[in-house]
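Q: For a teaching session next week I want to show students how multiple molecules come together into a single three-dimensional assembly. I've collected the sequence lines for a complex. Could you give me the predicted structure tokens for the whole thing so I can convert them for display?
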Amino acid sequence: MTAVIDRERQDAPAPEPPSRVRSGLARALSPWTVVVILTVALLAYLTGVPLYFLIHDTFSGPDGFTLDHFGRAYGNDSGAGEMLYNSVVFAVGSALLSLVVGGTLAYLHVRTDVRYKGLLFIASFGPLIIPGFLYTAAWIFIADPGIGLVNTLFLTPLFGVDISIFSMGGMIWVQGLHHAPIAFLLMFAAFRAMDPSLEESALMSGAPRRVVLRRITVPMLRPAILGAVLLVFIQSLEAFEVPALLGLQSGVYVFTSRIYLELRSFPVDYGATGAYAIALLGIAVIGVLLSAFLSRDVTKYQTISGKAFRPRPMELGGARTAVNTGVLVYFVIALVLPLVVLVYASLLPFYRGPSVETLRSLSLVNYQRVIDLPAALTALQNTFVLGIATATATMLLTAVAAWLVVRTKAPGRRLVDLLTFSPLVVPGLVFGLALSFVYLRTPLPIYGTLLILLIAYTTKFLPFGMRYASVAMVQASGELEESALVSGASRMTIFRRVLLPLASSGMIAGWIYVLVISFRELSASILLYSPGNEVISVLIFDQFNKGEFTVVAAMGVIMIAILVVLVLIAYRLGARVGVRTDDDS
Amino acid sequence: MLLTSSGRIRTAITIAVIAGVVSSACGGAPLTAGAPPAQDGTQSEAEKVFAKFNAMSGQERHNALVAAAKAEGKLMLYGAPESSGELVDAFEKLYGIEVEVLTGQTEERTQKFIQEETAGRHVADVITNAMESIQQFDEMGFLGPYKSDLLKEIPESIRGDNWTAFVRVAFAAGYNTTVVDPSEIPESFADFADPKWKGKISLELGDFAWFMALYGYYKDKGMSDAEVTDLFERIATNSKVVSGHSQQAAMLSAGQFGVAVSAFTQSVDREIAKGAPVAWKGDGTATTQPIVLRYTSVGASRHAPHPAAAQLYLDFLLSPDAYPAYAAQKQLPIIPPPDDPLNGLETLPIDPAQLATEQAKWSDLYDAILRKGSQ
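A: Of course. Below is the structure for the complete assembly, covering every listed component.
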């Protein structure tokens, strides 16, 4: 630990670059400074537009400033107290489940000699790829007390009991498993960038594994853990699918059921909707600040230093068989079961439980219908282009922003951190309205083209990119960058050639994450797309609205297949850069 | 170390944040306070075309309209997915005019249309939506006049100078015949309050308009407010609550519950067409009555880029030419055909004026009843 942490304090005077004979202006506007300024201005602009509209709608009435909207949203018989309680229990439970599941899987994958690593990786990020409402619907068909397959085929005939997904526990289960990939990808990157020699030394000094985990592993990973908890927590607070499909039937009403109701009224009460969103914003602000406070001593987490290390997988020994089995069981439960249900549904004219009759009616008709959709090919192309462009733009922007937040003490850097987090809490409809309002009045050809979707997606996914990028950069020690600076490299070069490669594990994890969720984005797309610029999620939504559930399942299966290929390619490419483990060689 | 640059960066960040925030705030005007009326006294190009065809009638109008629409060659429709598919195909086939469709849910379509019209970017020719939303467009001055012989058959309460209802949306109790014996289906909604339905029936989260209509219906039958509220609370206690009629229909087919109390007949009929064991009426089986009705409406944009095609599409929606497409989509055209599925059933139209003025009240009450029922 000493080599990494007990270095001289960061605030010691740093060496200046050798060549100082540049003019004042040129120095003030070094390429890197220009890049940082432009990035921050762009970020402030991108996040400022939706935020401005949200705040404006929430706090203004016919006579200027007002708090009336809050009265309507929280007053009377709105049951806000109970909803808040339910929302928080749901979000905390989901965040913890995601963290434990994702963290364990990441640890096993990076640090141990567990078998089936390829399978483990697919099992770990797989649920992410399945659109939320399909994943949830699949769980209804698995664990509904009346028609759930686990009950009808297994538990009821064998044991005379049944399980029900319709409870707070069931909601946390589905939401937690569905979001475990966020934690997995963050922790996966963090473990890869962490020198295991610290833990090895502790083990050799006789510390039990439990103690090592508690005293060394977890503290070292604090930024990644906080990042994962924060993302899943806020996402669960504003999640709609699981509360709508599982919560309503079990009488668990959360904040988002209320927002949904407001959006169904006519005309929509944007003031009250905003009042709910502002509450989420408040929670998010506290979360980001708390997370920054808890990991304030950045040097503690710097695990990538000038010292070479080559992580060696820990031998599980006698526990290996049990752990291997555990991985297989998880793979089956979290991914195979829901996928089998979706594939099964996609082959049917309408969903019903398996029987001789249904098995006879299996066909590929739904897939044929998807292929025959007039906009299918365009939508696929658009989604593909948008996904790759969004992931790249998001990670580039957040890489620079993360550098600013993690590596400098510039005032306002917390504000940048907060601004990049804010898109997570702006309701999709408000978000889309803000963008269309601005770009309808912009002479540039943005409205009605794919560009407006690119802008929307990039803005919406900044919070994710930012977490991935900053966790990755916290782990890279500044000393390598200092060496480069001393050797005369420009800051631009250092960023490109030193920091980005060192942080690449996390950056690639973030890129994969953004790519996958951009395939699913609906709430902003539905308002901003125009004919010819359809994306897959809009087509899926149309089919869903027409009541074509099994066609939707077919589209989901196709989308999952495409994304699995894309992610595996990115994973392969990612394995070639950054910190190498013995596995990769 | 790397912090040395923070002096420069510091200033830069401050400037950049301010610049970014200021520029994003410059968008200025409130989003949702409603757009200023577009009535500027002048007649748009589209309105001249509308006026020309509105002055004609009969076959003469039709022939001239078809010729002009064909010359325009295109139509941009902002319409719900369930009211575009086969209708659009049939229109394209009949007249050889290419139709582009923008879908999405009611609110998204509403906002997109309002935003575009307010900004002076006129893209849509025709927009279909819930009646109250179309009326709002009309009040904002976004719709062009529409006159046609076909309108005579439509009650004046559900049409205006610039718009008309064109589809009836019917709420009926849909049931899954493998879960519920058709002979058990009650004739009255009140029977769903019986504890024997516990866990077997389903209500939809946002159906407060349906609730409002039935509430008035039972009041008219002599029940007190307390009695009606109690009745619906007991129904809610028996219910599983779902959100969205499409999802409700899919879960009904799957047998997740036996009865969808406020299903759309079109959703149930589409499931029947796929072979699902569901129904909302049948030979010798009771249909739970009354059937609550609401209307989907349509209007042409005052600045439609393809005004003749827009008028022709409106004519088409009201004409018997569209009946086969309505039948294929399981929709109920506004002028009932001879074999209308609602023939002989008691219907109860939702009062649009009441909905417009009392919406918040009914939405809150329905929400409270559902939540009370879930405890």
